Amino acid sequence: MKTETRLKPNFKHRLSGLDEEATPLNLSDSIHTLALQADSMLALISDQFVNDEEEPVKMSDEIMYWSIESVRQTVKDMRTIVDAYHQANRTEEHRRAAGESATA
């Protein structure tokens, strides 16, 4: 019988505040960190196209591809965090509404 082992990696080292409450401050901190990462990568990429040096060092196509892919994945992480924040707060609103209905 073949058994399947599923990976469940812990990404706390990459994404700050994810194990904390879904507050606007934690959302802001997480998105801010990811935005800094994406912006930094885009600055490196843009330097490949606009550079004042006479002979700039050019990235290979493979490095350029993976750099752009890294930014894309970071943006996906941002979307996922915002979606999770929205879902957590939506669930909390439903709990509060249910509690108010029960006491009314």
Primary descriptors:
104 residues; mainly alpha; 2 helices; 63% helix; elongated
DSSP strand (E) fraction?
under 5%
* Distance between the first and last residues' Cα: 56 Å
Arithmetic mean of pLDDT: 83
**Oligomer type:** single chain
Count of helical stretches:
2
Strand-pairing-aware structural class: mainly alpha
Radius of gyration: 21 Å
Main sheet: strands, sense, barrel? none
Quick structural overview:
By secondary structure, this protein is an all-alpha fold. It has helices at 24-46, 61-103.
Question: How does this model look, in words?
Answer:
- With 104 residues, this protein is mainly α.
- It contains two helices and no strands.
- The N and C termini lie far apart (56 Å).
Topology of this protein?
Layout: H1 24-46, H2 61-103
Helix pairs in contact: 1-2
